[in-house]
Every structure is written in structure tokens, then in C-alpha cells.
Amino acid sequence: MIDLPYLAVAGGAYIFVYKHLKGTFKFLIPNVDPNPEELQVWADLKEAKIEIKDAINKLIELKTNCKFTLNSINLL
User: Fold this and answer.
1) What distance in Å separates the CA atoms of residue 39 and residue 59, rounded to the nearest whole number?
2) 26 and 9 inside one domain
3) How far is CA 64 from CA 5, 29, 30, 59, in A?
4) Which of 43, 46, 48, 59 is the most buried (most CB within 10 A)?
5) What pTM did the predictor assign?
6) Residue ranges making up the domain that contains 17
7) Torsion angle (degrees, nearest 10) of CA 59, 63, 66, 69
8) Which parts of 1-76 fold into alpha helices (H)?
């Protein structure tokens, strides 16, 4: 019999691991708290207090000091 490899599937906040088409493991991905300065940049954009160019420049400055949310990563 051929030994099938494990299969990992991401679903929401979980990673499900299957072997022989049966659920073997379920891992919860921990939440990462966003940086307050990053949230402030997004709030300013929402309220049209700053332009997109300025927001991008601020996010680039913050990039070395914190982990970004998916929205910031996609914007950059």
C-alpha cells in the first residue's frame, strides 16, 4: 500500500491536517494585535484626513517596527 502524505488545509483561523483522508490535527492560528499607529493611519484614510500617498509613506516608515495587518500588506 502506498503511504499518502499529510495534507494541510487552511480554513478561517484554523489549519486542518489530514492523513488518509481523515482529520488528524487541527491547529488554531493565534491572533496578532495590530499596531495602534497602523490603525490610526487607516482611520485617517477612512475619514479622508490624509491622502493615499501620505498613508503609504507612513506605513513604509512603520514597516520596520511592527507586523502589519493583511490590509496594509496588500496596500504596500
Assistant:
1) 10
2) yes
3) 38, 23, 21, 9
4) 59
5) 0.58
6) 1-31
7) 60
8) 36-46, 52-62, 70-75
